[in-house]
């Protein structure tokens, strides 16, 4: 029951009342430091009160709980050294990481905790010592891996075509080799080494990604842009395309160019994932993700309707015409592709002035240019501009969340020998087996002195105001003039007290 009440207090809007009640309940806890403590019992979602305060973005309760966990090591004048308990904060030995919970929640208030002590200092320590070097090395290794895969695709086994052309539009001169013909020369064996590296890399990607999907859940794993959700979809699809290409090569199935081309596009697009390691480029990946999966996805539905309608109209118009004079609409798939190019203004309107064009072509093309180019493209630009404006206001905050997510990901993937635990063991200071983070801070005494005087005369004004209200309630039966005089008296008293407080503050400043 006590643990349930602690979780309820974390969610209370009245922060001051919640903190006092939290301390009161813990004062009756018999196991304050042991494993049976009320603060360490999780709820049905696996969240302790401390983790729940982080997920809900309750910065007041989080700071209150951290003040209870800190130990003042020494102080010298304005300098003070504090040891902060990293229990439940450090993701090194946690199955459900506190940092991962913060960056995966949809509440923006939770990301403000990343700027608070000691979370900010812990993330900076991990990122600067281990995260950034490992991430840059991983980016370089991935780029070299993609260069190897690209070279294998460029020099894939082809042979001259032996069959005759089936039509005048047939332009094929090379065809794919069979498996027995693909690995004969020294160059083929060299390419085989690169292909083996590519396949091994695809298998490693699947081995690393699938456990995280099962642990976090597909919806949360692929849906969070800060965690790199769209990039996880890209890299998993890339690995699957590599395996499909390998199966088609081993079975001598024609058409391997389809999965191979998809893999090339997806693999090189995934390089943008490593931009999150740089403050200049990281926020732009967030903008690209939000534009693609927000604005562009909605816009594509409207674009598909317009293209289907006008492409069908163009095909019907030129269905009776000679395709040699105007071949952009000679069949229905080519009509769709040509209309798509016209929609994006990649090409101009096809026309042949040596022959007579159907009258309806001019009418349909005129309406298509008005709807597609002038209306819909400008609508897309306006939508993307609005998304850019919204993301730009919180891009630094989003980049810090990206850094935290990347740090937690690397800490889980890398062996323990390459990523030692951050902080100081409590046994060095006689604080048990817990780990602590040492933070040095500078306290300005003048600032605290001024704040103390400010709070003093604010409290005095508040008391005088309450007394004035009590006088008004007691004197309800008195005449209206007496009520006004009592109100003016209370205001003058409050004004005098406020003036006295400002004089004290001005004198001490």
From TrEMBL:
Subcellular location: Membrane
GO biological process per UniProt: calcium ion import across plasma membrane
InterPro entries membership: Ankyrin_rpt-contain_sf (IPR036770), Ion_trans_dom (IPR005821), TRPV (IPR024862), TRPV5 (IPR008346), TRPV5/TRPV6 (IPR008344)
Topology of this chain in the membrane: Multi-pass membrane protein
Primary localization: membrane
Signal sequence range: none
Any Gene Ontology CC annotation: plasma membrane
Transmembrane segments: 134-158, 192-210, 231-251, 257-275, 296-318, 359-381
UniProt keyword terms in alphabetical order: ANK repeat, Membrane, Metal-binding, Phosphoprotein, Repeat, Transmembrane, Transmembrane helix
GO molecular function: calcium channel activity; metal ion binding
Residue ranges annotated for the Ion transport domain, each copy included: 135-393
Protein known as: TRPV5 protein
Originating species: Corythaixoides concolor
Organism placement in taxonomy: Eukaryota, Metazoa, Chordata, Craniata, Vertebrata
């Amino acid at each position: 029951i006590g643990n349930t009440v602690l979780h309820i207090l974390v969610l209370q809007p009245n922060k001051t009342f919640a903190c006092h009640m939290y301390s009161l309940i813990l004062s009756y806890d018999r196991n304050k430091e042991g494993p049976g403590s009320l603060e360490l019992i999780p709820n049905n979602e696996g969240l302790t009160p401390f983790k729940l305060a982080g997920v809900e973005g309750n910065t007041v309760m989080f700071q209150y709980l951290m003040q209870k966990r800190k130990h003042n090591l020494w102080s010298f004048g304005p300098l003070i050294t504090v040891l902060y308990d990293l229990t439940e904060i450090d993701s090194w030995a946690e199955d459900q990481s506190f940092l991962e919970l913060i960056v995966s929640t949809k509440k923006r208030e939770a990301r403000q905790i990343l700027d608070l002590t000691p979370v900010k200092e812990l993330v900076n320590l991990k990122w600067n010592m281990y995260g950034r070097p490992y991430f840059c090395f991983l980016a370089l290794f991935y780029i070299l891996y993609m260069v190897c895969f690209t070279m294998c695709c460029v020099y894939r086994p082809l042979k001259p075509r032996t069959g005759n052309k089936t039509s005048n539009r047939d332009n094929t001169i090379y065809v794919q080799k069979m498996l027995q013909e693909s690995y004969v020369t020294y160059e083929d064996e060299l390419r085989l080494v690169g292909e083996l590296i590519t396949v091994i890399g695809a298998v490693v990607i699947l081995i690393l990604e699938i456990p995280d999907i099962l642990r976090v859940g597909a919806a949360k794993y692929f849906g969070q842009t800060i965690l790199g959700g769209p990039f996880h979809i890209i890299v998993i699809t890339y690995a699957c395309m590599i395996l499909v290409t390998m199966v088609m090569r081993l079975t001598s199935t024609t058409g391997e160019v389809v999965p191979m081309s998809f893999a090339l596009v997806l693999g090189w697009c995934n390089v943008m994932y490593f931009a999150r390691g740089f403050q200049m480029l990281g926020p732009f990946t967030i903008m690209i993700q939000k534009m693609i999966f927000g604005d562009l996805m909605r816009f594509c539905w409207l674009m598909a309707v317009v293209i289907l309608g006008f492409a069908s109209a163009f095909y019907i118009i030129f269905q009776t015409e000679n395709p040699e004079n105007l071949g952009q609409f000679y069949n229905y798939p080519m009509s769709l592709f040509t209309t798509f190019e016209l929609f994006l203004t990649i090409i101009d309107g096809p026309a042949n002035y040596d022959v007579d064009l159907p009258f309806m072509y001019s009418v349909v093309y005129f309406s298509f240019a008005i709807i597609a180019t002038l209306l819909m493209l400008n609508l897309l630009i306006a939508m993307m501009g609005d998304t850019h404006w919204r993301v730009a206001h919180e891009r630094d905050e989003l980049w810090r969340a990206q850094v935290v997510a990347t740090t937690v990901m690397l800490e889980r993937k890398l062996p323990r020998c390459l990523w030692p635990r951050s902080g100081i063991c409590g046994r060095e200071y006689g604080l048990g087996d817990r780990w602590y983070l040492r933070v040095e801070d500078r306290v300005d005494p003048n600032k605290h002195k001024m704040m103390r005087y400010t709070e003093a005369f604010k409290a005095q004004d508040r008391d005088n105001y309450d007394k004035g209200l009590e006088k008004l309630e007691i004197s309800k039966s008195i005449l209206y003039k007496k009520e006004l005089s009592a109100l003016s008296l209370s205001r003058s008293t409050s004004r005098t007290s406020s003036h006295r407080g400002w004089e004290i503050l001005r004198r001490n400043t």
